[in-house]
TrEMBL record:
<dbReference type="GO" id="GO:0015205">
    <property type="term" value="F:nucleobase transmembrane transporter activity"/>
</dbReference>
<keyword id="KW-0812">Transmembrane</keyword>
<keyword id="KW-1133">Transmembrane helix</keyword>
<feature type="transmembrane region" description="Helical">
    <location>
        <begin position="278"/>
        <end position="302"/>
    </location>
</feature>
<feature type="transmembrane region" description="Helical">
    <location>
        <begin position="127"/>
        <end position="148"/>
    </location>
</feature>
<keyword id="KW-0472">Membrane</keyword>
<feature type="transmembrane region" description="Helical">
    <location>
        <begin position="198"/>
        <end position="220"/>
    </location>
</feature>
<feature type="transmembrane region" description="Helical">
    <location>
        <begin position="45"/>
        <end position="68"/>
    </location>
</feature>
<dbReference type="InterPro" id="IPR012681">
    <property type="entry name" value="NCS1"/>
</dbReference>
<dbReference type="InterPro" id="IPR045225">
    <property type="entry name" value="Uracil/uridine/allantoin_perm"/>
</dbReference>
<feature type="transmembrane region" description="Helical">
    <location>
        <begin position="240"/>
        <end position="257"/>
    </location>
</feature>
<feature type="transmembrane region" description="Helical">
    <location>
        <begin position="384"/>
        <end position="411"/>
    </location>
</feature>
<feature type="transmembrane region" description="Helical">
    <location>
        <begin position="474"/>
        <end position="493"/>
    </location>
</feature>
<feature type="transmembrane region" description="Helical">
    <location>
        <begin position="322"/>
        <end position="344"/>
    </location>
</feature>
<feature type="transmembrane region" description="Helical">
    <location>
        <begin position="168"/>
        <end position="186"/>
    </location>
</feature>
<feature type="transmembrane region" description="Helical">
    <location>
        <begin position="432"/>
        <end position="454"/>
    </location>
</feature>
<feature type="transmembrane region" description="Helical">
    <location>
        <begin position="74"/>
        <end position="94"/>
    </location>
</feature>
Length: 505
């Protein structure tokens, strides 16, 4: 089916009839324009490999290891992580649909409900969180380089003079790894796809090798799997389970918004759906099991849970083993970091300043902000990593996901007017480019989700009674509360105070 401006193909995918119709738009550039059908060539394997590359990384490993360090046994940690990833897969696939159907990235998709200008609100919120993740991953990769060089250069490197709380050689390693990723970013999205395809299997082998090494030292699976939970299955466990589950969901809350950045290149809905179902829950369950077994083994071998795989790798005496293991860790970090934490903010920043920033320059901006955020502070403790960093931003982004799902599936019924996403006179202009309904719904969902943010005394930045005390009980369910509240608020506001008629394309 064709209209004067957009064409719907037999498989349901839509493209602009004439791409030049938005060529002069101040709200578009080459990266933000809808992907032409001939360029949508990602297969099921590409999406499965993408998730393998993104999920097989050290922060994913730290999720499971952190739960063990907090007192869960292997079964409790495994169930928590697997359930979390099955839950987050639902909004992730729902929001992925628009990318494949229309060939548009997340910030352009958001324009349909927040307005052509208003989309900068959720896009920049998501972008700054991605910058924080980029910094965390870069710090971890820098630590791996620091250890590798230390194995070869000796104590002169590892015991160098301290600057800012760390050896200056660690800062140097951090800077080198940052520069390495900037080079990969400069190669663009196709360079990233090729890197993911060959890096993902190598990373899998590396984590398996680390687990096998610990199993040998611990005497097999038996002693590891028989370790009792420090929390039991009573109130102590359930008190930690709910916020931990929200943290597991929040780990991919960012991708549940911006998967259109990747699915816009898909050959069809079937390829992206099957690829993601194969890639996310299975891969995360695998890495969780490997991490749980490995971390539980460290309790037997070393007397305490070593939740950082870089630190664990340092314990092995053979320098060849240490070097190979950490090279794999570096590949894992690069694979995840550039895909999950650079692609999205690059589009998001470019959406805010389309005439000034493109994918490459916005990616460099992401790298700079990732340093300014001081990521070494965010992963200093598993409680802060899971209950502060993950839980808080998960609640914020969940409300955005609720708005997008309500708007795309229940209000517009997946029908968008593609050219109007780039116009200042179309159906998505609302009031001066902003749809206040989406903004209010997002703020409402965010306040309910994280307004009661609290920390145990001495274990985080929030007051023990919560930022807003009467909302404290909601914080343990931050992601679920934010998603439901954002969805209901946006749907209700749109129904009772409509801004425009449904699309008729």
């Amino acid at each position: 089916m064709a209209t004067t401006e957009q064409t719907t193909h037999p498989d349901g995918r839509v493209e602009l009839t004439d791409p030049d119709v938005i060529a002069t738009s101040r709200y578009g550039n080459a990266e933000l324009a809808p992907t032409r059908l001939r360029d949508r060539n990602w297969t099921t394997y590409n999406y499965a490999a993408l998730w393998m590359g993104m999920a097989h990384n050290i922060p994913s490993y730290l999720l499971a290891a952190g739960l063990v360090a907090l007192g869960m046994n292997w079964l409790q940690a495994f169930v928590t992580i697997t359930l979390g990833n099955l839950i987050v897969l639902v909004p992730l696939l729902l929001n992925s649909h628009a990318g494949t159907k229309y060939g548009i990235p997340f910030p352009v998709f958001a324009r349909a409900f927040y307005g052509v200008r208003g989309a900068n609100f959720p896009a920049l919120l998501r972008a700054f969180i991605a910058c924080g993740w980029f910094g965390i991953q870069t710090w971890i990769g820098g630590q791996a380089i620091f250890v590798i060089v230390g194995e070869l250069a000796g104590k002169g490197w590892t015991e160098a003079s301290v600057v800012g709380g760390h050896p200056w050689t660690l800062w140097l390693s951090f800077g080198f790894f940052w520069l390495l990723q900037m080079v990969l970013i400069w190669r663009g999205i196709e360079g990233l796809r090729r890197f993911e395809n060959w890096a993902a299997p190598l990373v899998t082998v590396a984590f398996l090798a680390l687990m096998i090494a610990i199993l040998v030292k611990a005497g097999g699976f038996g002693p590891i799997l028989s370790q009792p939970s420090k929390l039991g299955w009573d109130a102590d466990f359930w008190k930690i389970f709910a916020p931990s589950l929200m943290g597991m969901i929040a780990f991919w809350a960012t991708l549940s918004l911006n998967m259109p950045d990747f699915t816009r290149f898909g050959k069809g809905q079937r390829q992206q759906v099957i690829g993601q179902i194969i890639g996310l829950p299975t891969t995360m369950s695998f890495i969780a099991l490997v991490s749980i077994i490995t971390t539980s083994g460290t309790v037997l071998v070393y007397g305490s849970a070593i939740w950082d795989p870089v630190e664990l790798t340092r314990r092995f005496e053979n320098p060849v083993v240490v070097t190979i293991g950490l090279v794999m860790a570096i590949l894992a970090t690069m694979s995840c970091n550039v895909a999950a934490n650079v692609v999205s903010p690059s589009y998001d920043f470019a959406n805010a300043l389309p005439r000034w920033l493109n994918f490459r320059t916005a990616g460099l901006l992401t790298g700079v902000i990732g340093i300014v955020i001081q990521p070494w502070r965010l992963i200093s403790d598993p409680s802060i990593y899971i209950f502060v960093w993950l839980s808080f931003y998960g609640g914020l982004l969940a409300s955005v996901a609720g708005v997008l799902i309500a708007g795309y599936w229940f209000i517009d019924r997946t029908a968008l007017v593609l050219p109007d996403l780039y116009k200042s006179s179309g159906r998505y202009w609302y009031s001066s480019g902003w749809n206040w309904r989406a903004v209010v719904a997002t703020l409402f969902g965010s306040i309910l989700g994280v307004g009661g943010a609290y920390s145990n005394p001495g274990a985080g930045p929030f007051p023990a009674d919560g930022l807003i005390p009467f909302l404290k009980p909601f914080y343990d369910y931050s992601w679920a509360v934010g998603l439901v509240a954002g969805f209901i608020a946006f749907y209700a506001l749109t129904q009772f105070l409509p801004a425009r008629k449904p699309a008729t394309v």
